[in-house]
Amino acid sequence: MGYTAVFAGLVVDESGRAVEVRRVAGSAFYIVDDAGFERHIPTDYVDRQVLKAMQEQVMAHREITVEGMLQFMGQDDLFTKAMVEASIDKMDEHMEQLLNTGLPQEARSWLGLMGLRVVIDFRGDVVELNMPEATETDE
Cα–Cα distance between 116 and 133 in angstroms, integer? Predict the structure, then answer.
């Protein structure tokens, strides 16, 4: 069971209502209102689905992701590129760590401002995932 809710504040139900996070016996749950019945969905079940989708998007656009990270960091040398690529290759390990530690509130706020929104059904299945997408700019 999840100890944190990685995407707390970014998850809504199919009606667009914000999903509450509640701790029970040390584990975190997303609470979905199902016609008055509160369904407790382990946060790691939902969070793994979202992280997997993000990982697939990163891998599908690996070169663009690496270039974007290098620009963000203000570095464009061979060693930094190798470090970023190695980090992408170890995403599974990073995901496990993230599920245990969570994201800082600032990072969740930033993701929300960028348009990240996770829609789940009453079983906790992700039915819609709105993620920020890279846009092409004129140079």
Answer: 10
Structure tokens at 3: 């100890």
pLDDT, mean of residues 38-44: 96
- Give domain status of residue 5, yes or no: no
Say what the pLDDT of residue 68 is: 82
CA distance 124 to 133: 24
Give residue 85's domain range.
11-130
Within a domain: 35: yes
Count of domains observed in the chain: 1
- Three-class SS state of 128: strand
SS3 state at 86: helix
Task: Note whether residue 50 is domain-resident.
Answer: yes
CA–CA distance, 115 with 110 (Å, rounded to integer)? 9
Regarding pTM above 0.85, the answer is: no
